[in-house]
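2024-03-11 09:14:02 DEBUG pipeline.ingest accepted 1 chain
2024-03-11 09:14:02 DEBUG pipeline.ingest length=294
2024-03-11 09:14:03 DEBUG pipeline.predict start
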Amino acid sequence: MIFKNYYFIPLTLYVLSYAVLYFKKDNPYKSFIFFIYSAFIIQSAIVFIGLDKYHFTMIIPIDLMIFLNSWILMLIIILFELLYKAKYIVIYATPLVIAGLLISYFAPSADITAILRVDSWLLIAHIVLILAGDSLFTLAFILSLIYIFQERKLKLKKNLKIVNNSNNKSSNTKARLFNIRKNFNYFNLGNGYNLELLDNMNYQCLKLGFPALTAGIVIGIYLSSALFQSMSFVKPIEIISFITWLIYAFLLHERVAKGLRGNKAALLSIAGFIMILLAVGFSFYLFPEFHGFK
């Protein structure tokens, strides 16, 4: 529990970054991204200290795996933000990282029990590949939501904004306090909210995430056979993982072979993300014994 208390350090910095973003008058995004990067550096240190604590073996607590998932997601978010220079990615996606940190703190401290039955490097590869794939699909989910809302706003001849920055001079103090200032106008339409760019980023998440998920599932099936001494494909986690894989396989096929783009591709990404949430629920909370936890 003492080690888990360190989870609140990056969590606090991530939350403070939004306070700075909304209330700082001068150069708010620069201060916001400073807090984000600082939190990520501390989060990275906690990840590697935690893994080293368990000697990078197969005995990895569930809470640390969820924390690791949040770290991988944040790494991907930052990389996409830097690569595509779309500042809004960090703003919209970081709340999921915050949620992951909260879940990791309250998650049960159960360990994987399959030690000595399979090679530890296979489990590490399985975990990293699955978490990387899920994180890429999570970002695709966020991008899909932005795409859908932005497309709807464009049909109404409006721009999607992170908050309302109108010059409402209401006498209500609380309303004025939360009214964003004019220097946030770079969060409006512009290059970042270009629908083509959003769709392209979504596609890149799919191209990178699907091979990672596929490799992770294949390794997971092998580990499952070693753990349960059976190659059966009837456990809930495996069924849901296979359905998730089919959704993303269909989406990738439609995008490559038939040029599926836009709203329909975004909706399929959202459906796949829902299946990922179900898989996580089965893995860690509903039926942990089916995934090798005690």
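2024-03-11 09:14:41 DEBUG pipeline.report Residues 112-116, 163-192 have pLDDT under 50 and may be disordered.
2024-03-11 09:14:41 DEBUG pipeline.predict end
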